[in-house]
Amino acid sequence: MTCVNRRDLGLLTLRLGVGAVLAAHGGQKLFGWFGGAGIGGTAQGMEAMGYKPGRPSAIASGLAEAGGG
Description:
The chain is an all-alpha fold and 69 residues long. The protein is elongated and about 50 Å long. The protein has helices at residues 6-31, 38-48, 54-68. The chain is built from 3 helices and no strands.
């Protein structure tokens, strides 16, 4: 067995932190958690940015962020 060193613990901490931020942002898009707009608001924002249709784009981006986190 190998010994766990500080570098491994630092990388784990970084990965967990970034993953939590991504999962929370995906939750904002999908469910409106943490003050997010939910699917409806995200879909309107996507359409305003030029992504048509907005609802499937909002669902895809929310699932990608939540799943990636």
